[in-house]
Specification:
GO terms for molecular function: catalytic activity; molybdenum ion binding; pyridoxal phosphate binding. With about 180 residues, the chain is mainly beta. The chain is built from three helices and 13 strands; from the N terminus they run E-E-E-E-E-H-E-E-E-H-H-E-E-E-E-E. The radius of gyration is 16 Å and the shape is globular.
């Protein structure tokens, strides 16, 4: 007897109006085209993350929405790190999709209307180590060939706005080939 694999779905949504590491969970969030998560400190058409500030706020914001997969939390628990949705600063926690394996330009429909386009991998920062000592080593690994694997989620821009809620279905649409791996953003 085989276990039934659930359809990909949204598990949790989070936002915070201040620049804090973890984000509180909400019953829903609104994605705004070209802007990000309404009411989130990192939303905006141009860079909003203080770590990315280079003297002007004119660089396009390629990190409007942070997505992470619930399966990562299960792996981290086995490795001794208890992490819950929103605690790594993500806006959308999903289940059933291997986000870091998706190519650049992949579009993900979240619920009935919202759609994001993947722009890159989140680069884990020192805040992760402050959150839980030893966690950074778990989120940055090396594969069998020695290549660095970043497991702290993916970043996206909003291409279609809409409300996203826990339980919403997810539809993944790959870009036309050839596919390019997600860069670090």
């Amino acid at each position: 007897m085989s276990a039934e694999i659930p359809s990909p779905s949204v598990v949790a949504v989070a936002r915070d109006d201040a620049h804090r590491f973890s984000k509180p969970l909400h019953g829903e969030i609104r994605l705004v085209e070209g802007h990000g998560v309404e009411g989130d400190a990192h939303a905006g058409a141009t860079v909003r993350r203080r770590s990315r500030f280079k003297g002007t706020w004119t660089e396009p914001n390629r990190r409007q929405v942070h997505l992470i997969q619930l399966e990562l939390f299960d792996e981290l628990a086995v490795e001794g790190h208890e992490v819950a949705p929103g605690e790594l600063g993500e806006n959308v926690t999903i289940a059933g999709v291997d986000l870091p394996a998706l190519p650049l330009g992949t579009r993900i429909r979240l619920g009935d209307a919202a759609e994001v386009e993947l722009t890159g991998l989140r680069n884990p920062c020192v805040q992760i180590e402050r959150f839980q000592p030893g966690l950074m080593k778990r989120l940055i690994r090396r594969d069998g060939r020695g290549a660095t694997l970043r497991r702290a989620g993916v970043m996206a821009i909003v291409v279609e706005g809409g409300v996203v809620r826990p339980g919403d279905a997810i539809v993944v649409s790959l870009p036309a080939g050839p596919h390019e791996a997600l860069p670090v953003v």
